[in-house]
Amino acid sequence: MKRPFSPYPLWTPFAFLAPFLVVFAVFLVYPLLQSVILSLEQTFGPQHKTFVYFHNFSQLLQDPLFFKALMNTAIFSGASVLVQMPLSLGLALFLNRPDIRGRAFFRLIFFSPSLVGAVFVGVMFGIIFGKRTGLLNIVLNRLIGFNLDFPWLQEYVMVSLILASLWMWTGFNMIYFLAALQNVDKDLEEASKIDGAGPWDRFIHVTLPAIRPVAGFVVLLSIIGSFQLFELPYLLLNNSAGVENKGLTIVMYLYQTGFETGDLGYASAIGWILAIILIGLAIIQRRLSRTEGI
Amino acid sequence: MDRLATNPAIKSSDFRRFGLILTYGALITFGILTLIPITWLLVGSFKTNEDFFGHLFLPLGEGLFGVAWDRLTLAHYWKLFSELEFGNYVMNSIFLASVTSALATFVAALGGYALAKFRFKGRWLITALVLAAIIIPGPLLIAPIYDLLYHLDLLNTYTGLILPAMGPAFGIFLFRQAMLNAVPIDMLEAARIDGCGEFRIFFSIVIPIVRPMIGAFLLITFLGTWNNFIGPQVILQDESKFPLSVAIAQLRGIYSTDYGMISAGTIVSIAPVMVIFLLLQKEFITGLTGGAVKG
Which residues of A touch B148 (CB under 8 A)? Predict the structure, then answer.
């Protein structure tokens, strides 16, 4: 609907957009361009910069610590998707039963951990996974005579991380699945019931296809989140990357090089590799969901 | 499973009841597993450090329900607020989160309105830029923003921490989506014909219509700022300016074996958010899931 005349002064939309555009230009567009330049420089603090072309990137490709961070992040990301998605979906299916009472109450409890910041979750589980005094070892010890000195945070960093993030995000993802389940075509479910399909067949042929797009979206969100993991392991391991860098993640490495070593250039190069990975993942997800005709 | 149900000896109602018990069992189990860590931390923050080691939950003894209530202590909280001046960090967090969320929401509502309800040259370009900005991972901008703040002489200031959050691309997009269909053009035009100013129209007509979205976006921005660690950790240097997230990381480093104290500090840090959530669950869920899921 094109309108022949504009009933408002021409400057109006720009006046409304002005505050956003100013901040957007100064604190997003400019830093983004700046980060391209920075990634081609070697810096020592914000003052001393030398232009080194692609030296940072070639350095990164041979940097064993960076590969360690990349591997840790990828393993965490894959494992947390594999463990968390079935759990979130299972919980959502349970909650979706029409005869369940107290749905809102359960939803409230499951959802609440995702409000606790990663920093605080890290501190919390840092105590819980502790030797001798940690809740986990004490409970396991009383139940099955488990070793009280079991070194969760020294030897089994990845398992600890996945458990902590499971506590944090399972309920959050469940909310999405629950919303998707409530939009499943009721007539189709009824029809399959009348045709004599059992609950399992119904789940495979009716429910799963219906929630597939949401599942794809939740998986993508989880992976994007996992690749930006920093606070949780950093605080879990008491402001460090842990023994032998077992808990080093990409963003933690970015933080350490940029703000502990003071090389903002190297940090920017790491940031760009992270950005390329994430944008690549988002494109793959879009392609996949398109070929499925969604 | 279904063959079982067709066996005349087993009624399908029994079968359903069994399934229901199983479902409740799973839900309750997971609910308990969710609540245990926080409960343990809360109880731990009232225990002396000896009892922290000696008793799993409440210290057992002679009192009511077999719990030694008299052994519980407020010492950790006392020390936290008197010696370590944690009240100061609480105030810093409240200040930062309130100011950031109020300003960011205002900027986002203004911008979203312009993109949703006006036709002008460059509208699609700006919308595309906003969408592109949502994809950019935050960590990529940490180093260049630090560099920029250094040159603007804004390091170690709240201004330097709040300003970058005033261009909320995601918020602009949310408000644009919310206003596209919810705000009727006819109403705006009628107001214009009556001689209302543009800003008056915005405040008296548009804002009331998108009030739920305003609440939701305020909340998630508040939460995001409250929980933000890397920003203040990198930008602030004076301890007196730290928010709780940075203060708790310091506390964990310095008092690494004083578990009661760390527990108390963590409880103080997450309690305000939990209380707000209990009061405003619906807005939270709508906001956190980007409006995709109604609370």
Answer: 26-27, 30-31, 34
